Amino acid sequence: MCGAPGSGKGTQSDRIVEKYHLAHLSTGDLLRQEIATGSELGKLLDSFISKGNLVPDDVIIDILAKHIDSLDADCAGVIFDGFPRNVAQAEALEKMLAERNEATSVLLDLQVEHDELITRLLNRGKVQHRSDDNIDTIKQRLVVYEEKTRPVNDFYKNINKYQAVDGMGTMEEIFERIDSILKQF
Ligand code: ADP
């Protein structure tokens, strides 16, 4: 599940998990869990996240590999939410899965207008008090998205695994659009 910050990746992933009983791996959630422990690693991670920058690839890939290997072998599939965040991570993911005789099925690109993203993130900041949902950090996250994450779409277009999803509208409308794609798998 890909898309800009505030595009609804987490919300829609939760609904997909409910319907299809997939495992949900959100790198943002995994990072926030580590920060909540107060560990030295958590402090390092927070120094990237609270400024709106990506955490280094080796840290993310390491965290992700551990979680993939701890999944139930019978699990029907996995939603990667907020990952891959740049082309290097996409290449690492494809390699990690190939080594395990697995593969990705599709990249869903949730597309939401710029002003709507800012409105959603500022509202979330009021409710959830995330260290990165303030206007300065939001602007940096959107810059990072354009520079680093958007090219991931082309990576998946090139291997014919890209599907755009209109992310404007109600949560139900957006879920219907996603569901019509997932039914094909
Ligand atoms: P959002 O997409 O709304 O910004 P996330 O919870 O997915 O929310 O990510 C929050 C922050 O966590 C990102 O801005 C980034 O600093 C960090 N992060 C999450 N996933 C990754 C990743 N795959 N690689 C590097 N940093 C990440």
Summarize the structure.
It contains 8 helices and 5 strands.
Task: Give an account of the 3D structure.
There is one protein chain. 59% of the residues lie in helices and 11% in strands. The protein is mainly alpha-helical. It is globular. It has a three-stranded parallel β-sheet with strand order 1-4-5, sandwiched between helices. The protein has a two-stranded parallel sheet with strand order 2-3. It has one domain: P-loop containing nucleotide triphosphate hydrolases (Rossmann fold, 3-Layer(aba) Sandwich). The site of adenosine-5'-diphosphate has 19 residues, from helix 2 and helix 3.
CATH class descriptor name: Alpha Beta
The total count of strands amounts to 5
Structural class by secondary-structure content: mainly alpha
Query: Low-confidence segments, ≥5 residues, pLDDT <50?
Result: none
Question: What labels would you give this structure?
Answer:
binds adenosine-5'-diphosphate, 185 residues, mainly alpha, 11% strand, two-stranded parallel ribbon, three-stranded parallel β-sheet, Rossmann fold
How are the SSEs placed, and which strands pair?
Layout: E1 2-3, H1 9-20, E2 23-26, H2 27-36, H3 40-49, H4 57-69, E3 78-81, H5 87-99, E4 107-111, H6 114-128, H7 135-158, E5 162-166, H8 171-182
Parallel strand pairs: 1-4, 2-3, 4-5
The structure holds adenosine-5'-diphosphate.
